[in-house]
């Protein structure tokens, strides 16, 4: 009961902070969508960090360490380096956002390539990916509630309550509401993660080193890559790192951050300190490692993803502490939901609705369309979360298609000769490759070894880039003044 | 709308600064500093790329072992964390020597 009270208190507090942002003067569309392009380093840092520290941080990541050992280290690699692209592209994105008033990824790409089809295509692909991402977070929240309250709150009640809170403050507070709550949630979950990462191994083994020595004795295969019988091979870990690294910034909720940030220096410094967020994932991995010897997967009867809450329950913490751990895990999932819901709603209103309806809206009307989109998007995500079984293929294709945006972004910002037909056909080719390969793997026509353990989306990316270049060169070039607005202006901006 | 005006002013400021720099580049000394700065930036990114390759095949093979234990961690775990820290420090130096205003 106390556990439930603590978790509920956390939800109420988050709701309060998030909606408070809505009362402090959302008087313009620019404020609602972009926080008036005024966010500082700490806020931007947490907004970007929220995407790594999702439900994955408290469930999937320790689960990976627990079930597959060092395979989880790939998370460190990509989350520490995934933002390098923002150091390089960021200044251009920022300058273009200010010059043309962009607030979404599609607006920028659609602006360069002057194509509604391209905008709608990308917006559709990213919306699908977003819906699935949210559904995963909802399942995380539901699971956390269910376990930590010993079933007093059911899976669905938990998932709906926590996402309901998110929808309310995103609806009311806009990007500033998301920013404020994310800082609060971010700080909170980091404290909880480090507490667990230090306390659990100390309690169970007497520290990190004795713990790893035990694992080295009992399960040495979990501490190196590519030993016989282990699930992690050189190919799979390299492929995971490569696609996550290349695709990281292509996620629209990360890509749009330069549109919200105060100035160039703030953005660069945010990228600089970002790897510290990756190091915050070390303690949750440690908790996963701590389960390997004491609660072997074969006999514990749990799924790998359940290891962190499972250990917390086994160690007999006080109810208040359990409540705080539950709240920390909720914070991780909810901050991600908020960032994504906000980005998705903006994209939905501007890229899908805006391009399909083809009518200019007043800023006031757009704000309400975005707010309506928050509700619609939330409802769709809930429906998808309710029927997850059939979604695996869609999920793999959608996540892979995020990576297919990379050539378009590079072409839009750096290559004047790129044409609309080129990027469009490249993107479509890439997505088709992923879909076909995923189907082939599922139908067992191909094994992962046939693909050298590389993810299908990497093959999609390679073909995408080839087709993009070939078709671009075969079609008439864009007006060079127009292309120059994106390529040349941005270059000189970077030299500032 | 107030915000938009504000941005416009900001943007104009950027534009002015850029023009000032372009005029500096026309002098020989200016060109030279611009070149070395670009080369230095390239070298830093080259170094960062090299450390990044340490995460994946084949270079991760160097760190792919259990012994020796360092700071209480098996060598591979330490390898990944150490790369993150090295990159972090390298980017800090790059920023403070090249990109800081």
Question: What do you see in this structure?
Answer:
- The complex is a heterodimer of chains A (496) and B (101).
- Chain A is mostly helical and 496 residues long.
- Chain A has a single domain (2-389), classed as Sodium/glucose cotransporter.
- In chain A, 78% of the residues lie in helices and 0% in strands.
- Chain A contains 25 helices and no strands.
- Chain A has helices at residues 2-23, 29-34, 41-49, 55-68, 73-81, 84-100, 105-113, 116-148, 155-205, 208-218, 234-248, 252-255, 257-260, 264-273, 275-279, 282-294, 297-300, 307-314, 319-357, 363-386, 392-403, 406-414, 420-442, 456-474, 480-494.
- In chain A, helix 10 crosses helix 16.
- Residues 491-496 of chain A have low confidence and may be disordered.
- Chain B is an all-alpha fold and 101 residues long.
- Chain B has one domain (2-99).
- In chain B, 78% of the residues lie in helices and 0% in strands.
- Chain B has four helices and no strands.
- Chain B has helices at 2-25, 28-53, 60-63, 75-99.
- In chain B, helix 2 (28-53) runs antiparallel to helix 4 (75-99).
- The two termini of chain B are 29 Å apart.
- The model of chain B is unreliable at 1-30 (pLDDT under 50).
* Alpha-beta content class of chain A: mainly alpha
Helix content of chain A: over 70%
- Secondary-structure element sequence of chain A? HHHHHHHHHHHHHHHHHHHHHHHHH
Oligomer state equals heterodimer
User: Helix fraction of chain B?
Assistant: over 70%
| Main β-sheet description of chain B | none
Summarize the main sheet of chain A.
none
Give average pLDDT of chain A, whole number: 85
The fourth-level CATH homologous superfamily of chain A is Sodium/glucose cotransporter
What class, by secondary structure content of chain B?
Answer: mainly alpha
Count up the domains of chain B: 1
Q: What's the end-to-end separation of chain A, in Å?
A: 57 Å
Q: Quickly name the level 1 CATH class of chain A.
A: Mainly Alpha
Q: How many domains make up the 3D coordinates of chain A? A: 1
Radius of gyration of chain B in whole Å, from Cα?
21 Å
């Amino acid at each position: 009961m106390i556990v439930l009270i603590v978790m509920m208190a956390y939800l109420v507090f988050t709701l309060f902070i998030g909606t408070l942002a809505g009362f402090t003067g959302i008087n313009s569309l620019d404020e609602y969508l972009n926080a008036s392009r005024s966010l500082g380093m700490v806020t931007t840092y947490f907004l970007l960090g929220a995407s790594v520290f999702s439900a994955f941080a408290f469930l999937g990541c320790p689960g990976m360490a627990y079930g597959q050992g060092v395979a989880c280290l790939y998370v460190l690699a990509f989350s520490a380096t995934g933002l390098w692209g923002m150091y390089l592209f960021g200044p251009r994105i920022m300058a273009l956002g200010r010059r043309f008033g962009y607030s979404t990824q599609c607006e920028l790409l659609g602006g360069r390539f002057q194509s509604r089809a391209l905008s709608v295509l990308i917006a559709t692909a990213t919306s699908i990916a977003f819906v699935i991402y949210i559904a995963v977070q909802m399942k995380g929240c539901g699971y956390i509630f269910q376990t930590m309250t010993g079933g007093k709150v059911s899976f669905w009640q938990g998932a709906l309550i926590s996402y309901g809170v998110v929808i309310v403050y995103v609806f009311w507070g806009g990007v500033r509401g998301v920013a404020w709550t994310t800082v609060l949630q971010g700080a909170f979950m980091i404290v909880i993660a480090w507490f667990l990462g230090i306390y659990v191994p100390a309690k169970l083994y007497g520290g990190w080193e004795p713990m790893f020595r035990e694992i080295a004795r009992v399960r040495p295969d979990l501490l190196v890559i590519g030993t016989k019988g282990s699930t992690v091979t050189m190919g799979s870990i390299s492929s995971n790192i490569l696609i996550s690294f290349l695709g990281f910034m292509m996620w629209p909720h990360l890509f749009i951050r330069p549109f919200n940030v105060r100035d160039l220096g703030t953005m660069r410094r945010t990228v600089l300190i970002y790897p510290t967020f990756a190091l915050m994932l070390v303690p949750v991995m440690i908790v996963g490692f701590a389960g390997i010897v004491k609660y072997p997967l074969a006999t514990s009867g749990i799924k790998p993803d359940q290891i962190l809450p499972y250990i917390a329950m086994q160690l007999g913490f006080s109810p208040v502490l359990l409540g705080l751990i539950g709240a920390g895990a909720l914070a991780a999932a909810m901050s991600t939901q908020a960032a994504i819901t906000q980005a998705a709603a903006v994209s939905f209103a501007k890229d899908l609705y805006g391009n399909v309806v083809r009518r200019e809206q007043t800023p006031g009307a757009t704000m309400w369309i975005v707010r309506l989109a928050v509700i619609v998007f939330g409802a769709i995500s809930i429906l998808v979360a309710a029927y997850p079984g059939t979604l695996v293929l869609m999920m793999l294709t959608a996540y892979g298609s995020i990576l297919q945006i990379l050539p378009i972004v590079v072409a839009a910002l750096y290559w004047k000769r790129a044409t609309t037909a080129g990027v469009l056909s490249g993107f479509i080719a890439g997505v088709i490759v992923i879909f076909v390969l995923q189907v082939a793997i599922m139908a067992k026509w191909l094994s992962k070894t046939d693909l050298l353990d590389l993810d299908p989306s990497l093959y999609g990316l390679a073909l995408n880039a080839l087709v993009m270049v070939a078709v671009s060169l075969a079609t008439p070039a864009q007006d060079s003044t127009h292309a120059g607005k994106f390529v040349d202006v941005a270059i000189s901006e970077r030299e500032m | 709308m107030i915000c938009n005006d504000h941005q416009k002013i900001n943007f104009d400021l950027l534009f002015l600064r850029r023009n000032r720099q372009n005029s500096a580049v026309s002098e020989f000394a200016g060109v030279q500093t611009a070149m070395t700065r670009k080369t230095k930036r390239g070298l830093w990114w080259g170094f960062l790329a090299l450390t990044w390759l340490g995460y994946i095949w084949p270079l991760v093979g160097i760190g792919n072992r259990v012994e020796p234990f360092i700071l209480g961690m098996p060598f591979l775990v330490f390898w990944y964390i150490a790369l993150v820290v090295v990159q972090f420090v390298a980017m800090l130096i790059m920023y403070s020597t090249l990109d800081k205003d």
